[in-house]
Amino acid sequence: LLSFFFFFQVLLGDMGAGKSSLVLRFVKGQFLEFQESTIGAAFFSQTLAVNDATVKFEIWDTAGQERYHSLAPMYYRGAAAAIIVYDISSTDSFTRAKKWVQELQKQGNPNMVMALAGNKADLEDKRKVAAEEARAYAEENGLFFMETSAKTAANVNEIFYEIAKRLPRA
Ligand code: GDP
Ligand code: MG
């Protein structure tokens, strides 16, 4: 039996962590070394078969800068899922990711499926955030965790698929 559903999701995280690059990789299979920074937010959609269902991903890619912070609730309030992105070569971006998780826990939809993405996993030689630290944090906070690379495509489709699989279906 074929079913169709769509859901909104939001990408949050520090500017430069790779949110737009993850979406571009997922939606278009592309990567840009000089990805332009996002102004406000950008919208993307992608339709894929996940198990026996056709799933339309409606994705809000947010800017990440502090000056756009007040806009973020517009994007996450209606979202069924969120990917919180940090850069494994930046401890500041990991700190910022944890702040986003706290904000979603307080003000987001309580049934939201949340994923923590440790992006730029290809930059192993510049790593500052241990995978085990991030994994432990994710487990304590009810998120699932993957390290991704928009550059090499590692775990990019996987993280989006995993979200779709975890969504409660009506
Ligand atoms: P955003 O501000 O979170 O949307 O980040 P961007 O997607 O604009 O990426 C910021 C910079 O990091 C760009 O120069 C990207 O090319 C680069 N970048 C993004 N993802 C990766 C990755 O997985 N590996 C590497 N090495 N660079 C990346
Ligand atoms: Mg961006």
Secondary structure: elements and pairs:
Elements: E1 3-13, H1 19-28, E2 41-50, E3 53-62, H2 72-76, E4 81-87, H3 91-107, E5 113-119, H4 131-140, E6 144-147, H5 156-166
Bound molecules: guanosine-5'-diphosphate and magnesium ion (MG).
Shape: globular
Share of residues in strands: 25-35%
Beginning-to-end CA distance, first to last residue = 15 Å
The whole-angstrom Rg is 15 Å
Characterise the protein shown here.
By secondary structure, the chain is α/β, with parallel strands linked by helices. Helix content is 31%, strand content 29%. It has five helices and six strands; from the N terminus they run βαββαβαβαβα. It has a six-stranded mixed β-sheet, sandwiched between helices. Strand 5, helix 4 and strand 6 form a beta-alpha-beta unit. The longest helix has 17 residues. It is globular. It starts with a strand and ends with a helix. Bound molecules: guanosine-5'-diphosphate and magnesium ion. The site of magnesium ion has 5 residues, from helix 1.
